[in-house]
Design a protein that fits this description.
alpha/beta; seven-stranded parallel beta sheet; 16 helices; 13 strands
Amino acid sequence: MKIGIDARWIFNETSGIGVYTAELARHLAQIDKRNQYVLFFRDGGLMNTIMAGIKPCGAENFTGHLLDFGVFSVKNQFVMPALIRKLGLDLFHSTNYMIPMLSFPRDCCGAPACVINIHDLIPLVLPEAAPRALKAKFPPLYRWVMKEVAARSSLIITGSQSSRGDIINLLRCRPERVAAIPDGVSASFRPPETGVPPSTYPRRLRQKKIVLWVGRRDPYKNLAGLVRAFSILRSNYAGPLELRLVGPDDSRYPEAPRSVVALGLADAVRWVGHVSAEELVREYQNADVFVMPSRYEGFGLPVLEAFACGTPVICSNRSSLPEICGSAALQVDPDDAAALADAMRRVLTDFSLADGMTERGIRQAAGYTWLETARRTLQAYEQVAMVQE
């Protein structure tokens, strides 16, 4: 079988979809020496970097193909179908929702087969949660696109049963055409010291306690709610505190920065911005608690990354997060700032609680590996190919 994977979803700045695409390709290269793969890129530098990471796997069956157009361009709709035919692909996998639609008839008749990832349906589930995002500005167009790509896909992969239910219900998909295959967490995310109890981690000796958040500033991430909760925490906690916010700036959503100023928190909040993969690991390792108060997550990879780094996690009790976190995290109503503040206070003052959360989190993260993601995805490819025949 000849499989094409759209790697144009990998960008220079780290993103969840980019991490998923790169890790899936690298681990497929480890386990599959039989099928042929073509990875499509828009950026030559990224292509060289990703392919160099695949080479140590001895993957002679993987090649890169450089394109001069992006996934949302008109050329993707009219040029890509001819290229897919020319390369003789049996299956095309887009790791996000946009596909060259002319390559794939509705109701998935004929070859090549099409596999897509739909990581979430936030504009349909919570239309008010990212109001200034482009896809939320034109809801009828977004809904039409999502229904079209769903109808033209042989299989939709998503990261959680929560998201699977949303896709089945909102896009009217047959359940057998939607598979929940969880993401993994990279081995680079690890505790600050291995083989030692959490009570001996370097952060325990530090007087200032660090609360960490990682993500984008879209309203569904509830960063403004976290800022309010941190203000309450600060008034009820005797020692020095710092809230570190890791992620790109976004001028569309100024609510959280304004809240920081209005609540007098400028001296205690650090806008870290985008960081490298190595720096992100250190941020998790140095934090006393990681907080993810999102109103919706299709999967919630940062909670697993924090778990793997031995950091106690507080998260929302909504959407996929209870499913992914199990009993390893404290779960709270994301709209209850007082409850969120109290959960942070408990973790920062009760070392026994924090140490237990660290140990449970490390065990929870160990159950999510990119190798297993790749193995289950390969099984899905093979099942789709059998049906197409």
